[in-house]
Amino acid sequence: MPKIVDHDERRGHIADAAINVITRVGFERLTMREIATEAGYAHGAIARYFPDKQSVLTASFLRLYDQANARIHAKIDGVRGLTALELACREILPYSPDGPPFARVVIAFWDHAAQDADVRRIHREHNMHWRDLFRTCLLEAKEDGELADDIDVDTAVGEIAARNAGWQMVAALLPDVSGDGRIDDGLAAMLAWLRRPGTRASR
Known about the structure:
This protein is an all-alpha fold. It is 72% helix and 0% strand.
């Protein structure tokens, strides 16, 4: 009886292998042969699923995004407001050990999104999902009386998204000024800006 192949599982395995290679050597030096070696497959097996490097990069980005999204929703289940926002950001921000190398995948994807309309559409769709999540958390914080009176929600959504994206760049390109402690300080400063004086987070 021929072996039944789970194609979704195989695509995920290849994407994981590509992530590992990109974090080691960068996207520009990535080859399909290196991915095949990392995954333990013949070179031709990779081509059946991904015709070129850009398709592998897209799959790698989506793999990281889906994993982060699953962690976020598990963490914030039953939690709301600024506490939920903090928990979500902690899953997005490039904390060690995985965050800094994975940031290289994210930055490579951003570069291609800036140049390719299809990749840009994928990035926008997923980025907007997180922006909607930030907005929901802020509206809950406002409803619960923990959001500072002078916070404009739409402005804050953009600021939170920019800070999360900015730390990806810092972690990948300026690791000497990154690190978990500094990310923690930046997150604490952002939450202090958002929080109404005299209120405290509940866990």
